[in-house]
Automatic annotation (TrEMBL):
Its main location: cytoplasm. Keywords: ATP-binding, Carbohydrate metabolism, Cytoplasm, Galactose metabolism, Kinase, Magnesium, Metal-binding, Nucleotide-binding, Transferase. It is an enzyme of class 2 (transferase). The record marks 26 as: Transition state stabilizer. The keyword Nucleotide-binding applies. It is found in: Cytoplasm. Residues 283-364 form the GHMP kinase C-terminal domain. It comes from Echinicola jeungdonensis. Residues 89-177 form the GHMP kinase N-terminal domain. This is Galactokinase.
Length: 382
């Protein structure tokens, strides 16, 4: 997204020069639905970004404009609360967290827009939250550190958007590093940057453009199911704090105390964490095919055990598996739609893009969107 587009919209609306911030969406190589179970994830920030333009306006009111929706919204800093859906929640949610932390804000004008596809599992909302947070920090000279900022962004999602998300998306957006994935321990928030050295392979995203209206409530349901499993295991193993500490034999010990569904969900999380750890070892050795196998395992688990896939995503993963020049593929993000991430041999990528789009069209009668993404730095001032 060209920041000039957002800057000139800002100037035309408010007749001021804004501060500009860019904030990226993310991919995740492996480790899905592990973050809120205090496990590991392997995301990276990408060159699909939100741009935020902001300036003070000398009042107590905040005037917002979404370039992509061509909608405006005004709220007063003294009196605002979550709305019934919509992009305003992401901005107000961050403002609320910054105020709660004791920082003084005054009214501002804000315009945002970007090229992170909405609902594609690329974390457009985290990109916006993180971008707004840095923009406010810069505008009011708050000098906020990155870890508190990304936590405010996550809380905004919990308290205003109503999604009890983990920390992965906000962490990736805020902490991204060019050409590196972030291997993040979601319990301690210890992390290390992992060079993305894929050799002959290229990351390709295939966007089903399916957006499930119940995705948010199904996400919160999965969280609750994981917690049910933990509660049962804790009765036998009080040292357990989260699914991160649980093994399959421990889960077996309580299988009469939990439903089949809860058991299967928990198994998936335990196995996905293991796949991530094995996958990282493979990446370190440059074994891309081995890593790809872990990705296929991740997709199967998400589809069959965690049940967050959909026919379009399953079709794309199966198609990828039938091509020996694709090292691995899987659905990415919360699920119920959005993208698959594919590791495709560079020499075959045009063939793949053509063939998978044609097969998808034939099966579902819809266009497949394909993105080739670069891995970038995190949220930053332009
Ligand atoms: C969504 C959430 F926001 C993340 O925290 C994470 O749980 C992901 O789904 C699934 O891995 O993107």
């Amino acid at each position: 997204m060209n920041p000039d587009t957002i800057a000139s919209k800002f100037k035309s609306l408010f007749d001021q020069d804004p501060i500009l911030v860019k904030s990226p969406g993310r991919i995740n190589l492996i480790g899905e639905h592990t973050d809120y179970n205090e496990g590991f994830v392997l995301p990276a920030a990408i060159d699909k970004e939100m741009v935020i333009a902001i300036q003070k306006n000398g009042s107590d009111e905040c005037h917002l404009f979404s370039y992509d929706y061509q909608e405006s919204l005004t709220f007063s800093l003294d009196d605002f609360s979550p709305m019934d859906g919509g992009w305003g929640n992401y901005v107000m949610g961050v403002v609320a967290q910054i105020q709660k932390a004791g920082h003084e804000l005054s009214g501002f004008n804000l315009v945002f827009g970007g090229n992170v596809p909405i609902g594609a599992g690329l974390s457009s909302s985290a990109a916006l939250e993180c971008g707004v947070c840095l923009a406010l920090s810069e505008l009011f000279g708050l000098n906020l550190e990155r870890i508190p900022m990304l936590k405010y962004a996550q809380k905004a999602e919990h308290e205003f958007a109503g999604v009890k998300c983990g920390i992965m998306d906000q962490f990736a957006s805020m902490m991204g590093k060019e050409n590196h994935a972030i291997r993040l321990d979601c319990r301690s928030l210890e992390y290390n940057y992992f060079p993305i050295e894929l050799g002959d392979y290229q990351i390709i995203l295939c966007d089903t453009q399916v957006k499930h209206s119940l995705a948010d409530s199904a996400y919160n349901d999965r969280r609750n199911e994981c917690q049910e499993g933990v509660d049962a295991v804790q009765k036998v193993h009080p040292e357990v704090k989260s699914l991160r500490d649980v093994t399959v034999p421990m889960l077996d010990e309580v299988k009469d105390k939990i439903s089949e569904v809860v058991n299967t969900r928990c198994q998936y999380v335990i196995e996905e964490n293991e796949r991530l750890l094995t996958g990282c070892e493979m990446l370190e050795k440059g074994d891309i095919k081995g890593f790809g196998k872990q990705m296929y395992g991740s997709h199967d688990g998400l589809s069959q055990k965690y049940e967050v896939s959909c026919p379009e995503l399953d079709f794309l993963a199966d198609f990828a598996k039938s091509k020996e020049y694709v090292a691995g593929a899987r659905m990415m993000g919360g699920g119920f739609g959005g993208c698959t991430i594919n590791l495709v041999e560079k020499a075959k990528k045009e063939t793949y893009e053509k063939e998978i789009a044609a097969a998808f069209k034939e099966e579902f009668g819809k266009e497949l969107q394909i993105y080739e993404v670069d891995v970038t730095d995190g949220t930053r001032r332009v």
